[in-house]
Amino acid sequence: MMNRTKIGTALLGFALFGGVLGSLPALAQPQSGPQSGVVFRNTVTGEALDVTQGKEGGRDTPAVKKFFETGENLYIDDKSCLRNGESLYATSCSGCHGHLAEGKLGPGLNDNYWTYPSNTTDVGLFATIFGGANGMMGPHNENLTPDEMLQTIAWIRHLYTGPKQDAVWLNDEQKKAYTPYKQGEVIPKDAKGQCKPLEE
Q1: Is 136 within 8 Å of 53 (Cβ atoms)?
Q2: Tally of CB atoms within 10 A around 130
Q3: What global pTM score does this model have?
Q4: 3-state SS assignment for residue 192
Q5: Cα–Cα distance list, 36 to 63, 89, 123, 147, 163 (Å)
Q6: Full pLDDT tens readout for the chain, 200 residues
């Protein structure tokens, strides 16, 4: 009987003490600064990717800074970047995804079906290129800089053959002006724009 009384008293005291604490203002907790920028996540695991890792360079261009902050790829319809993106895609992606992104060993990238729905956005596609995915899609952060990845993404988007309304990476103005790649199309080596020609 004595043990029950002690337990009951202890519970009552705990409840009262908890009630008092419950009415006190919460103690200040350390706050982190407001989060800015895009958090890139692994396509398969969802873990945050550390975009400071990988191939040196290509992180300080205005386009990469803007992309890391907002997720907007400034290279999407820039001919000089498409020229570079075509070359980067040919060496890094076409072996698995096909010359026209029609799909080979890897899935097609030129229609409106995406193995990973997150790849409908440039942030998602960047995360897949940077961090890899399932199957043979390994990370490409050791052989492409973030700036080169954005140029590659611009080329992949240029190869798109699906309905314009599904091209969520294009704004309304870009959708109106969009014309998909036609086999045999050649972008001049001296195309003006944001991207310098790749070093050979």
Answers
A1: no
A2: 21
A3: 0.79
A4: coil
A5: 16, 30, 15, 20, 33
A6: 445 545 444 444 444 444 444 444 433 333 333 345 899 999 999 999 999 999 999 999 999 999 999 999 999 989 999 999 999 999 999 999 999 999 999 999 999 899 999 999 999 999 999 999 988 898 899 999 999 999 999 999 999 999 988 998 888 998 888 888 888 888 888 889 999 998 86
